[in-house]
Amino acid sequence: MKVCPRCYTRFPDGERFCLHDSAVLVEEEDIARLGTSIGNYRLDKILGRGGMGTVYAGEHIYIKRPVAVKILHPQFARYQEAIHRFLREARAATSINHANIVDVTDFGILADGPVYFVMEYL
Fold it and tell me: Both ends of the chain: CA-CA distance in Å?
């Protein structure tokens, strides 16, 4: 099931855009994370969804710094190889120092399953 992140209308999996406001539809599981926290980061808005994970705009709970948090899709989090690929992606991003590439500032694997990394939010 897909959900509109603006009006929360539900649509069948084949749909890509909301018929009411033209927003790109997201997976129901992604919407469920909005307003929750992962590690020290609150998840406020979905920025995008790719093959391996979903990226959220959020904020560090204590220092109030805006961040982007990429969370590995749950169906991959149970596979060590997928976790290693995700970690390699985070490490690769940290090895590049360029004004047009965001910095990765944190990486975590929580006991209840979510695997994530945190980037600066531009």
Answer: 30
